[in-house]
Amino acid sequence: MACLAEPPSLLLLGDGELRNERLEWAQPLDRWTVLYYQHSNAVTVNAQTYLVEPGAMVFYAPGVKATHARVDEGTNHFFMTCNLPGNDGSRSAIPTHCPHMERVLPDMMRAAYRISDDRRPGIAFAWNLFWSVAQSAAVFRQHEELYAAESWIFQHLS
Q1: Alpha carbon of 43 to those of 5, 8, 12, 65: distances in Å?
Q2: Distance (Å, rounded) from C-alpha 97 to C-alpha 143?
Q3: pTM value?
Q4: pLDDT in tens for each of the 158 residues of the chain?
């Protein structure tokens, strides 16, 4: 679940290969990581395994535990790590695995290659990406009372 009331503060955007630190990790509590896979891999997020093919994206939410079956050579990908600072407003469901996301690669590449000169294209890309995959929170729960409880908990965490 994510609050998309404000644009993300972009921390990192680029490309590379998966390294050993991505074999198994816990996602930091304050940030999302999104990977666009240019290779096949098996990804586990909170004990749910996804088989990813080239062109798929995986959204790693804050606090998830994750693994990759394959790292190092031949694991090319584009990545984005950002915070979603919004706290007020409704929350949206962000799917973990999105296959067939080839349409976003050109924009992601343009934003990544411009990040050292201008962060705004990266921020715009990130916010648009989250909005493009966001779904109603109702897709995950059948009882509205659970949303009210979750909202109250998020507002009173401190």
Answers
A1: 29, 25, 21, 11
A2: 24
A3: 0.85
A4: 888 999 998 789 999 999 999 999 999 999 999 999 999 999 999 999 999 999 999 999 999 999 999 999 999 999 999 999 877 778 889 999 999 999 999 999 999 999 889 999 999 999 999 999 998 876 665 566 766 777 777 777 76
